[in-house]
Amino acid sequence: LKSKEKFYKKPGRPSKLIIENQVLVTLEYWREYRTYYHISQTWKISESTVCRMVKRVENILIQSRKFSLPGNKKLLDYSLNNNLVAIDVMESPIERPSKYQKKFYSGKQKRHTLKTQVIIEQKTLKIICLRHGQGKIHDFQLFRSTGVRFNKSVKVIADKGYQGITKIHGLSETPIKKLKKKKLTKEQKKSNRELNRLRIVIEHVNRRLKIFKILSYPYRNRRKRFGLRSNLIAGVYNYELAL
């Protein structure tokens, strides 16, 4: 932000807040997800100034690429050989849309949501990539529509929502599903428990992301910017993990 400030000459009065405080306002907005009005009252500035400030900081951070995620290419990289990759879907509630409500209604959550597909490296807990979809779409259907592919030597673990992933990626594993009027054997139950011990780490990552209330409280803003903000928050999480 400081490097951008040197080349950016803003006409009119200088900002009331120094650069460090502008970043803090943005982090506060993500973390607490208070309204622009309440944040403006705390910092003694106008609502419109808070709105412009948050968007400007977000744009600079995403353009700097210092908080960008490794992305799909990392999943095809040979450096992930013999590593475990975990995949799961996180749901964020939204306000009821005025149009196309059925597309965003999640039968699992019983409310309108946006889905975020999270892929992490199981050992390091680093987020590799995120993909987004509407609340109605099934987890496995979201995976197929995003076109994510893995290196053949990478093992993928997922939950029951990804039944059928082995047809796309052979080296993958999901819990054994109980059939009607049949019980799982002791070996099958043991296998499921062992898989869940490996897979539970992605639930911990989802919890770390949802500490930022903008992802766990009903999203009030326009949905177009949701992907940018969730990717930035994931980038901040990876940055903190590397410290």
Task: Summarize the structure in words.
Strands 1, 2, 3, 4, 5 and 6 form a six-stranded mixed β-sheet that branches. By secondary structure, the protein is of the alpha/beta class. The chain has ten helices and six strands; from the N terminus they run αααααβαβββαββααα. The protein is 44% helix and 15% strand. The chain starts with a helix and ends with a helix. Helix 2 (19-32) crosses helix 4 (47-64) and helix 3 packs across helix 4 (47-64).
Shape: globular
Q: Please tell me how large the radius of gyration is.
A: 21 Å
End-to-end Cα distance, whole Å, is 20 Å
Q: Count helical runs.
A: 10
Helix content: 40-55%
Pattern of helices and strands: HHHHHEHEEEHEEHHH
